[in-house]
Design a protein that fits this description.
Layout (H helix, E strand, L loop, with lengths): L1 H20 L2 H7 L3 H34 L1
Helix pairs in contact: 1-3
Length: 68
C-alpha cells in the first residue's frame, strides 16, 4: 500500500515540478510532455519504496538476531 502512495505522491510531485520549472514557450518549443515527468517521478517513488522496504526488513532481521 505504501508503494502506491509513494508512486502517486512522487508522480504528483513530478507534475508540480514540471509546471514550476518549465514555461509554456519552452514546453512547446522542445515538445515536452507532462506525462513523462509524472512517470519518471512515479518510477522514482517506486524505487524509493522498494529500497525503504528492503532497509526496513534488514533492520527487523538484525533486531531478531540480536534478541537471540
Amino acid at each position: 500500500m505504501r508503494t502506491f502512495i509513494y508512486m502517486i505522491g512522487f508522480g504528483w510531485g513530478g507534475l508540480w515540478v514540471f509546471d514550476l520549472m518549465y514555461h509554456p514557450y519552452f514546453v512547446n518549443g522542445y515538445h515536452l510532455n507532462r506525462m513523462t515527468s509524472i512517470w519518471i517521478y512515479a518510477i522514482a517513488g517506486l524505487v524509493y519504496a522498494i529500497m525503504e522496504n528492503k532497509i526496513w526488513r534488514r533492520g527487523q532481521i538484525q533486531n531478531e538476531q540480536k534478541a537471540t
